[in-house]
Amino acid sequence: MAGKRWISLLRNVAVGAAALASTAGLAIPAAAGQPPSADGTRVVGGTRADPGEFPWMVRLSMGCGGALYTEQIVLTAAHCVSRTGNDTSITATLGVVDLHSSDAKEVRSSSVYRSPTYDTTGGDWALIKLAGPVRGIPTLPLATSGAGNTGTFTIAGWGAASEDGDQQRYLRKADVPFVDDKTCQAQGAGYGDLKPDAELCAGNVDDGGVDTCQGDSGGPLFRRDESGKWTQLGITSWGDGCARAHAPGVYTEVSTFASDIAAAAEKI
Predict the structure, then answer these.
(1) How many domains does the chain have?
(2) Which one of the listed residues 79, 109, 115, 211 is annotated catalytic?
(3) Which Pfam families does the entry link to (predicted)?
């Protein structure tokens, strides 16, 4: 669907180039969306995150986001990678909000695991194993039930701050409200194909204005649990444009795949 913010392999390359150029002060035209894979995703309507506020956030060199799942594994979206197997082409940047910071940790990948159900029944998730463990950076635990799929979530990323805009040098954050499956499906277009068991929606349905966007794909949707600890409930997946009214963001429902993710992490 034109206008969706999926990141295809081609779009990954375009977004990655845009990220490098825009953070250096250059403007790069956005790549045209292509069904079923089109634009990536970023935070619109947000503000800069404070240093150390979300330490487990990861920027990936193909133009996606992610979260540190273990000291050596990053959780991202399946549509950000092409296959399961050895892969040393990805660089993960961690530990900073400013991608130009001299304190940034950069680690190359060693292998990738892509959800085998992504192209069939959903499951837009993937694991990137790093060449070595990253010490001193907290990980982001996953929700194992859907009990937290309500209320207000936080989103974050280095993606564009407006639809088809430039990638960001500084990490941005915003809060978005939960949207129930029935309401999300009623927004028409591709939302009628929502997979309730595999996806959840969040955003200001009537007004838009706040959303993930190009370059945020693979990043986490998270909130504090009952004990006050940050927990990941979603993975930025797709949507119709960015921050449009009646076009909420769609996220992989992490609790549905938490056991599969854990099993894959053991063997990657």
Answers:
(1) 1
(2) 79
(3) Trypsin (PF00089)
Q: Domain with 141 in it: what CATH number?
A: 2.40.10.10
Q: Report which residue type is found at 90.
A: I
User: Of the residues 115, 217, 237, 255, which is catalytic?
Assistant: 217
Count of CB atoms situated within 10 Å of the CB of 163: 18
Its domain, for residue 171, covers 1-268
Banded pLDDT at 144 (limits 50, 70, 90): very high
Banded pLDDT at 16 (limits 50, 70, 90): very low
User: What is d(CA 168, CA 18) in angstroms, rounded to the nearest whole number?
Assistant: 10
pLDDT tens for each residue of 38-61: 333 449 999 999 999 999 999 999
Q: Is 124 a catalytic residue?
A: yes
What is the C-alpha to C-alpha distance for residues 136 and 113, in angstroms, rounded to an integer?
24
Distance CA 163, CA 211 (A): 10
Q: Does 79 qualify as catalytic in the annotation?
A: yes
Q: What average pLDDT score do residues 197-221 get? A: 97
Catalytic residue among 124, 211, 216, 240: 124
Find all residues with CB under 8 Å of 206, minimum gap 6, and list them: 245, 246
Q: What is the DSSP string of 103-147?
A: T-EEEEEEEEEE-TTTTTT----EEEEESS--TT----PBPSSGG
